[in-house]
Amino acid sequence: MRLRLLLLPSLRSKLHPPPRHCCSSSPITNGVASRRRFSTEGSAPRPVIGPDSVEVLGYSYPRDDFTNVTPKILEKVGRNLHNQSHHPLWLIKERIKAHFYSSYMGRWGNPLFSVHDNLSPVVTVEQNFDSLLIPPTHPSRKKGDNYYLNRATMLRAHTSAHQSDLVRSGLDAFLLAGDVYRRDEIDASHYPVFHQMEGVRLFSNHELFSQVKDGHQLSLFESGGRRTPQKQETHTLEAVKLVEFNLKQTLTRLITNLFGDLEVRWVDCYFPFTHPSFEMEVRFHGDWLEVLGCGVMEQELLNSAGAGNKLGWAFGLGLERLAMVLYSIPDIRLFWSQDERFLKQFRVQDIHQPICFQPLSKYPPLHNDISFWLPDDGFTENDFYELVRSVGGDLVEKVSLVDDFTHPKTGRRSHCYRIVYRHMERTLTQQEVAVVHGQIQQDAESELGVQGRY
């Protein structure tokens, strides 16, 4: 799950962007936004990156030395593919939501799990990392892996950024879907914006043990305990085993609903915000496929969110990953396509109707190489990938490092990358590609400090 999938939202009135500052009508210091637009009706104004501020979703954020969000990325904010009716991501989200609505009922016959799918992707750094017990030195915080508006504010790297606020609001069972943002490599299965869906369920002592013989004698917590591979120091082993059983049963039913009967296995893993933690894999077309991550929530998270008397589980999954597998979609860029030949294949009467994507005519690729000496003061590959995305956008299908050379005498290093260009909806010309490629070369030298070898 790679810090990618767990934990969740709060009531919209409490989390409307920017979180925790939604009632302010005057500028807020310390890197937080000032409000430029008070009406929530209609579409949000176009994002703007100015010399001193970044404006997104109606808020203005002061720029500083951490600001690294790009216009190409801000164009995606507010698209909300997971909420566009009959989009493949919407279909997956609705299938998961329908399963939880029909399978889990509250005391009065209403759905047990509430659903939150319209929370702002702009969050504080504290929400994205600190609230999830992610250490200050953890590599997932790196500027090279995230999109920062400034040192205090960023585009969420996982929907888990909302979990503490939601638990604090008093909810015990909920689902969240939303867009998340990460700087990453460029290929058919990676994109800087993707979508996650997560679930959280909390149990009181009575809820967990009410169906257990002599359950009134059992407890969620113990004093003087120790942390082991099976449990946290404050949890009783019987409580953890019941929560773990409920978690795995819930997720096995969900995946069976999506894929049909499949062989399932659980792999022990590590996440900062759960213990014990697991990845769920299914046997699909002969291969083991990782579909989600999950675990027993760290009690410190619940304590800090005002739910210290409860114990809970959380899971998270990627909507694109499921859609690509279930619908045989070969390229992640297709989810952003507005080509009617793509979109019409998902306009079905029943969200459970099987769909096998019929590939569009695949236009021929063009590939150009770029080779340069690396600067002496350091080079981050994700910075180069981000530059390529900023210039080439969705014309770029893949970027691969094809040569890493160190000069035997000077010790200087050079990289050679192969950039594959392919338009999703038409044939590119060499002349078009030459213009884009030339701009990438020029910007790499001016912005990254490399020295061209072309």
UniProtKB/TrEMBL annotation:
Keyword Protein biosynthesis: yes
InterPro entries named among the record's database cross-references: aa-tRNA-synth_II (IPR006195), aa-tRNA-synth_II/BPL/LPL (IPR045864), Fdx_antiC-bd (IPR005121), Fdx_antiC-bd_sf (IPR036690), Phe-tRNA-synth_IIc_mito (IPR004530), Phenylalanyl-tRNA_Synthase (IPR002319)
Main location: mitochondrion
Enzyme Commission number(s) from the entry: 6.1.1.20
Gene Ontology CC entries for this record: mitochondrial matrix
Domain Aminoacyl-transfer RNA synthetases class-II family profile: 90-375
Chemical reaction(s) catalysed: tRNA(Phe) + L-phenylalanine + ATP = L-phenylalanyl-tRNA(Phe) + AMP + diphosphate + H(+)
Main function: Is responsible for the charging of tRNA(Phe) with phenylalanine in mitochondrial translation. To a lesser extent, also catalyzes direct attachment of m-Tyr (an oxidized version of Phe) to tRNA(Phe), thereby opening the way for delivery of the misacylated tRNA to the ribosome and incorporation of ROS-damaged amino acid into proteins.
Name of this protein: Phenylalanine--tRNA ligase, mitochondrial
Organism listed in the record: Sphaeramia orbicularis (orbiculate cardinalfish)
